[in-house]
Amino acid sequence: MSLLKPTIKTPFHIDFDWWKKNERDWHVFLRSLLCPEHQEAFAEFDEGEMIDWIDPKTAEVKPVDGIQHALMSHCALLPEFSNAHTAMVEAVFRTFLVNGNVPMSSDDLAKKLNRPADTILRTISGTRVYRGLRPYQQNIPNPVKEEIEV
C-alpha cells in the first residue's frame, strides 16, 4: 500500500480481499443487498459458491462468486438500490457495485453521486477502511533492485 496521501484524482475500488480478511460475514452483507428475486434464487446457495461467467468481450469462461455477480450485474442496477438519501459510504460502495467495481476517483464519484469530491475523499481515505473501499493499486513491480554479483 502506498504511503502517499490520496487526492480527488486517486482511483478507489472495493477491495474484496479486504472483506474476506476482515469481515467474517461479508457474504451475509452482500446477500442482504440482493433484490428479492435473487435473495430467493440464492437462498440455498453456499457461501462463496462459484458460477461460470462468460466474458462478453473475450468469450472466456471464468469462475466468479455467484452472489457477487448477481449483485453487480442485476440488483445494483435497480433504481431502488441507491438514492439521494443513501449514506455516503453506502452510496460510494453501491456506486462501485453498479459500475462493476471499476476503479473511480473521488472526482468521478462526485459526478455520479452529485456530492462534493472533497467530502467523498475525506470519507473514504481515512485510516479506517469502510466497506473495503480502498485506493486502487495496479500491480507495480518492486522498485528494489536486485544486487549484482561482481
Question: How would you describe this protein?
Answer:
The chain is α+β, with helices and mostly antiparallel strands and 150 residues long. It has one domain. Helices cover 37% and strands 13% of the residues. It contains 7 helices and 5 strands. The chain has a 3-stranded antiparallel sheet with strand order 4-1-5. A hairpin with a 6-residue loop joins strand 2 and strand 3. The longest helix has 11 residues, at 88-98. The radius of gyration is 18 Å and the shape is globular. The model is unreliable at 140-150 (pLDDT under 50).
User: What is the CA–CA distance across the termini?
Assistant: 33 Å
Radius of gyration: 18 Å
The total beta strand count reads 5
- Mean pLDDT, nearest integer? 83
Structural category is alpha+beta
| Net shape | globular
Low-confidence stretches: 140-150
**Total count of domains:** 1
- H/I helix tally: 7
List SSEs in N-to-C order.
Answer: EHHHEEHHEHHE
Strand content: 5-15%
Give the strand order of the largest sheet, numbering strands 1, 2, ... along the chain: 4-1-5
